[in-house]
UniProtKB/TrEMBL annotation:
Molecular-function annotations in GO: oxidoreductase activity
Name of protein: SDR family NAD(P)-dependent oxidoreductase
Family: Belongs to the short-chain dehydrogenases/reductases (SDR) family.
Organism from which the protein derives: Sandaracinobacteroides saxicola
Entries under Pfam families matching the protein: adh_short (PF00106)
InterPro entries membership: NAD(P)-bd_dom_sf, Sc_DH/Rdtase_CS, SDR_fam
Keywords: Oxidoreductase
Length: 259
């Protein structure tokens, strides 16, 4: 796919992996719209790259619809969608208090929240974006669009307390190939990245010794991943028209231990 001049939507684009991807797309001449809840950071990144910010909650149909309407009014129909919006928690399925012996289970509302944001929110944006991409005139080889999703290595080797997170990210991996097949007749490609331990705002507040331990757990290179490395792969998945239906780990060969 020729990137220059295309329109793109990046969810979770106000920081971390999404912001790095938005910056790289803009550097390639792509018109970028950022979907995020954080208006202050989103507006700042949008101003930096000459893009547009849309305050969007990926769990809400009306909010997502309004975001796409605003983005398309400014840039035209997007040919690229990068899904980076997501969150996580760490709660055991059932646990016993060391102090009192009391037993409790994972609150189902907290479990469902992670599924709704990471899995359903991703699918919601895919479905609505793909419907719009189908209106585009096909380019070379009949291509109309490219979609990149963000899962996690936790989809394959989730740690203690990651039942909800792993389930949500495993769902993203599991739906990648069926969606790629659903959309193949329309010339829309779908791929997913499974990042390992990346230096994103999620880890920004972690003590240096924690970051050092995490870095040491990576076989090579022994450091945290950089958002720019995620962005590089995401953009290549858009550029390379033979990249389709794939789930790719980007993790320095790490395989997560139970804890």
């Amino acid at each position: 796919m020729e990137l220059k001049g295309k329109a793109a939507v990046v969810t979770g684009g106000a920081s971390g992996l999404g912001a790095a991807t938005a910056r790289l797309l803009a550097a390639e001449g792509v018109k970028v719209a950022l979907f995020d809840l954080n208006a202050e950071k989103g507006e700042a990144v949008a101003a930096e790259i000459g893009g547009i910010f849309c305050q969007v909650n990926v769990c809400d149909d009306a909010s997502v619809d309004a975001g796409f309407e605003k983005a398309r009014a400014a840039h035209g129909q997007e040919a690229i969608l990068i899904n980076c919006a997501g969150t996580g928690n760490a709660v055991k399925t059932a646990s016993r208090s060391k102090e009192t012996g009391a037993i409790k289970h994972f609150p189902l509302d907290a479990f469902n929240m992670i599924i709704q944001i990471n899995l359903v929110g991703t699918f919601r944006c895919i479905a609505k974006s793909a419907a719009g991409m189908m209106t585009l005139e096909p380019g070379e080889f009949g291509e109309r669009g490219a979609i990149v999703n963000t899962a996690s290595v936790a989809a394959e080797d989730g740690q203690i307390g990651q039942a909800a997170y792993s389930a949500s990210k495993g769902g993203v991996v599991g739906m990648t190939l069926p969606i790629a097949r659903d959309l193949s007749g329309e010339g829309i490609r779908v791929n997913t990245i499974l990042p390992g331990i990346f230096n994103t705002p999620l880890l920004a507040a972690a003590p240096d010794n924690v970051k050092a331990a995490l870095s040491a757990s990576v076989p090579f290179p022994k450091r945290l991943g950089m958002p720019e490395e995620y962005a590089s792969l995401a953009v290549e998945m858009c550029r390379n028209s033979y990249f389709n239906g794939e789930d790719v780990r980007l993790d320095g060969a790490i395989r997560m231990a139970p804890r």
